[in-house]
Design a protein that fits this description.
Layout lengths: L2 H31 L7 H24 L8 H23 L3 H24 L7
Helix pairs in contact: 1-2, 1-4, 3-4
């Protein structure tokens, strides 16, 4: 394993994670303010490009470190929380019928993202609990 490349990919992964949550908070808060909010085209496309880079880096890191999600509890927990984050984001941006639904889904998305970050830092699904 090339340690320098691994560290570079890890840095890109963490950086794109920060960009992901920043974009989501911005877009989600705009959606909460105005249910008819329609972002500029670049703001619709850029998060998907960023998230693709984030996911590609995650796959590389897991592969290079030989940590399979099925065999690694903390990685499985991150993937489960990621699916919750994506689902809640979809509710915020597309499917919520009321502002209350959007607010709850937005909060749950932020919490699930925070959980993902804490699990990644601690490498523990329970984060030391």
């Amino acid at each position: 394993m090339d340690v320098e490349l691994y560290q570079l990919i890890k840095t890109i992964h963490m950086s794109t994670a920060v960009v992901t949550i920043c974009c989501f908070i911005y877009r989600g808060s705009m959606k909460l303010r105005d249910s008819e909010y329609c972002p500029a085209r670049w703001l619709k496309v850029f998060p998907h490009i960023n998230d693709t880079i984030l996911l590609a880096c995650a796959v590389y890191l897991a592969t290079e470190s030989q940590q399979l999600p099925i065999a690694t509890n903390w990685l499985s927990a991150k993937i489960a929380a990621l699916l919750i984050y994506i689902g809640m984001g979809m509710i915020v941006m597309r499917f919520a019928k009321t502002k209350t639904q959007r607010v709850i889904a937005f909060g749950l998305a932020i919490l699930s993202f925070g959980y993902i970050a804490l699990v990644a830092l601690s490498r523990s699904a329970t984060m030391g609990l």
